[in-house]
């Protein structure tokens, strides 16, 4: 599944939610809401990471093997893809679809895609949650200082895409290169599973 396909899937869900709930908000407010939502989801991700790490350490000290650790790691993945949903919702708010690369997949972004963009702020082999929070905070500060909704020039959109790609690459590295070792396939399947659940929630007026 390509990054462009994920973008389109998220766009369809976002539009469905807006239509279903009859939301009438200006683009800036919608973007700020999505940015805040991602910060909240990152907090929930941190809670699951801490729970998993504490459980793993306890089991290792006691030399206990249990499926509970696997279940706990699956909860980390679930929270991780929740964050991923909002990361792509932010991209939808920024209206950068036409500049997103057509063929690159999550697996490509977990490597060093030097042919995609150069890294302005960060080029890690791995990325912790703390690292990602720093990068994402810089991104939100950048958006706060850039009146993107008043700028239509192509080079501005491309620069914004580069900044978003830096966030995306760091986010994918956080999931694939660290102790979690999620595969691109696991992330994609978890994303699609949560996507299906979100549509079901809309049908049930969640």
From TrEMBL:
Keywords: Coiled coil. InterPro entries: dUTPase/dCTP_pyrophosphatase. It comes from the Bacteria. Residues 35-62 form a coiled coil. The keyword Coiled coil applies. This is Dimeric dUTPase (All-alpha-NTP-PPase superfamily). It comes from Acetoanaerobium pronyense.
């Amino acid at each position: 599944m390509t990054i462009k396909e994920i973008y389109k899937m998220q766009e369809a869900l976002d539009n469905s939610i807006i239509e279903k709930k009859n939301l009438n908000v200006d683009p800036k407010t919608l973007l700020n809401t999505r940015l805040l939502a991602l910060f909240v989801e990152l907090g929930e991700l941190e809670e699951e990471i801490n729970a998993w790490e504490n459980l793993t350490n306890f089991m290792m000290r006691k030399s206990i093997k249990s499926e509970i650790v696997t279940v706990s790691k699956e909860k980390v993945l679930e929270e991780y893809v929740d964050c991923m949903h909002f990361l792509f919702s932010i991209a939808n708010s920024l209206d950068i679809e036409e500049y997103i690369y057509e063929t690159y997949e999550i697996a490509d972004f977990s490597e060093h895609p030097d042919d995609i963009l150069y890294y302005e702020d960060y080029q890690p082999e791995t990325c912790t949650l703390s690292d990602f929070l720093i990068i994402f905070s810089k991104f939100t500060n950048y958006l706060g200082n850039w009146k993107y909704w008043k700028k239509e020039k192509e080079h501005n959109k491309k620069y914004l895409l580069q900044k978003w790609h830096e966030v995306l690459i760091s986010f994918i590295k956080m999931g694939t290169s660290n102790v979690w070792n999620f595969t691109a396939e696991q992330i994609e399947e978890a994303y699609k599973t949560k996507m299906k659940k979100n549509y079901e929630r809309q049908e049930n007026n969640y």
